[in-house]
Amino acid sequence: MRNLTIIGGGPSALMLAAQIDTKKYQVTLCEKKKTVGRKFLVAGEGGLNLTYNCSIEELIRQYSPSDFMSPILRKFTNEDLINWLQLHEVSTFSGSSNRVFPDMEMKPIEVLKKITDLIAAKGIKLIRDTTWLGWDDEGYLNFDKSIDKDTDIVVYAMGGASWKVTGSDGQWSQPFKKRGIQTHLFRAANCAFEVDWNSNFITTHEGKPLKNIALTFNDFVAKGELVISKFGLEGNAIYALSQKIQDKLLTEKSTIIYLDLKPTMTVLQIKDKYKKSSRTKVTEILKKDINLDRTSIGILKHFTNKETFSDTEKLIEIIKSVPVTIKSSEELDRAISSLGGVSLSEIDLNFQLKKLPNSYVIGEMLDWYAPTGGYLLQGCFSMGFVLANHLNKLNTE
Ligand SMILES: Cc1cc2nc3c(=O)[nH]c(=O)nc-3n(C[C@H](O)[C@H](O)[C@H](O)COP(=O)(O)OP(=O)(O)OC[C@H]3O[C@@H](n4cnc5c(N)ncnc54)[C@H](O)[C@@H]3O)c2cc1C
User: Fold this and answer.
1) How far is it, in rounded angstroms, from Cα 2 to Cα 321?
2) 40: CA distance to ligand 1 center in Å?
3) DSSP-derived secondary structure letter, 184
4) Quick check: CB of 332 below 6 Å from ligand 1?
């Protein structure tokens, strides 16, 4: 029997542990924190969005690079994840937006417990409160506690670099770099972006949502919701474009996104409503005929001057394309996920580090991106499952 050490106790590691064949491997899982799955529980605070209910092709399109994620997701799809959870007594439901959640009566901690119970029942040794520091001079694993470092196979699953409080602090990148493994700089993803609001606007509209809008950045469009915050804009529509915006902000001090406040109507349809309206006050027309809410009207006023606001032609153009200048992203620690991490060129098709045979990397440690919507957890679970299947097939004699 070979020894397998898993470092990190997030969803990718837990899925791997749950699926690994313990007749072939003696498995130890080392976690820095006193408990595993802390980020998973944080994810659960806003509704534990486990995956997204759509065709496999649509699912794959959400990931970047999608050609990297495609074989992984095809081997363990969203449907497979839902069935796997069901098999382990976690029933799910698909919300109106096709996001998949655990059944209402099941709390995230109970979902986590189902998975950790499964792992415990397999006899996997869980070592908590133990941090991997890097490699010693002879290349052995180096922990802050004295534990058996001799292992045949190591799987690194230490997560990305946001929400440090959960244990995913990206400290692992230093020893990786020292070892000559290319890692890309961590940057915030699925995060808020800074907008210069005027004080009147933010006092009235802080915390207010902009529902059913569309955002355009270069040729990319994201539909969904935004929330006005003191810092700027947050919400799934801007999260979906976060990687593209971040890439632009690498070389530019600011960039412009375009907000369509009425994606369900064309310019012509809005013009027609305007023409047919019996009202004279612009704000009344916007509210009653075009059905814009107070915050959308506030946005229009914020980004136009009096002259434009009373010029019907110009105002209608702006309703469909409000230019909003973005200055920076929110700090990495507050982001839902991180860009960067181990370069995908460092691993082979089975997640094995090319420079370190018998060492594998999975989950958010790797440099891939997905928007919110359950795609992040799906990606991590798929990697854990696919790697377990690969290791289970290896000849361990
Ligand atoms: C606020 C928030 C909400 C989210 N909501 C959702 C959602 O609804 N749906 C969704 O799909 N995704 C969501 N996510 C993202 C999702 O939680 C992550 O993508 C996922 O947890 C990453 O899994 P992972 O296995 O790569 O690592 P992580 O979950 O980051 O776990 C890594 C583990 O490794 C441990 N570790 C780190 N360094 C060491 C070390 N040196 N030694 C030992 N152990 C170490 C950490 O303590 C941690 O437990 C959310 C994230 C946040 C922050």
Assistant:
1) 60
2) 6
3) E
4) no
Domains delineated in the chain: 2-188+337-393 (3.50.50.60), 193-326 (no CATH)
Condensed to tens digits (0 to 9), the pLDDT of residues 135-154 reads 999 999 999 998 877 899 99
**Cross-strand pairs, 325:** 256
Question: What whole-number distance in Å separates Cα of residue 363 and Cα of residue 395?
Answer: 24
pLDDT score, position 190:
97
For residue 122, report the phi and psi dihedrals to the nearest 5 degrees: -85, 0
The residue to mutate among 376, 383, 386, 387, having the most atoms of ligand 1 within 8 angstroms of its beta carbon, is 376
Q: Is the C-beta atom of 340 inside 6 A of ligand 1?
A: no
Answer yes or no: are the C-beta atoms of 11 and 91 closer than 8 Å.
no
Does the predicted model carry a pTM greater than 0.90? Answer: yes
pLDDT in tens, 254-265: 999 999 999 999
By residue count, the chain amounts to 397
Look up residue 234 and give its amino acid: E
